[in-house]
Specification:
Strand content: 35-45%
Structural class: alpha+beta
Shape: globular
Order of helices and strands: HEEEHEHEE
Number of strands: 6
């Protein structure tokens, strides 16, 4: 029987990811205790979440900012900046010297520039007429 491409289940995909993790760790041992260490925070007004953030360190103390959202009614009040600083603090304390992120051109890339991030990439999607922008921030030791 010859190999063929087939759809897979979530369990099958988890197996594949585990195999890649094993390969990565054998090729370059982890510099952190586990492959993924994350931080998540929210800001509430009463019972309602009005802002939130998630960042993590992966494999080699590589910092990622994954998600940042502020309800439109609460923007420009410093909430996003406060959340960003909290994640940066967590990741830097954990040993990350660089944090990076990607954002679309309509999601306020100027916010990241104003907070010390430098753009290092731009991927244009002509079918959607938008740019995915890549930013990084390096911390001095």
């Amino acid at each position: 029987m010859s190999p063929k491409i087939i759809p897979i289940t979530s369990d099958d995909f988890e197996f594949i990811e585990d195999q890649l993790d094993d390969y990565n760790i054998k090729s370059k041992p982890l510099t952190q205790p586990k492959p993924f260490v994350g931080s998540r925070y929210a800001i509430k007004d009463g019972d309602q979440i009005i802002a939130g953030i998630m960042g993590y360190s992966s494999y080699y103390r590589i910092g990622y900012l994954d998600t940042l959202w502020v309800d439109s009614r609460y923007r420009r009040q410093g909430l996003g900046r406060a959340l960003l600083q909290q994640i940066e603090h967590d990741l830097h304390d954990y040993g990350c010297q660089v944090i990076h992120l990607e954002t679309f051109d309509f999601q306020g890339p100027e916010f990241y520039e104003a907070n010390g991030y430098t753009q290092f990439g731009d991927l244009y999607y002509p079918n959607a007429d938008l740019h995915e922008l890549y930013f990084q921030k390096t911390f001095a030791e």
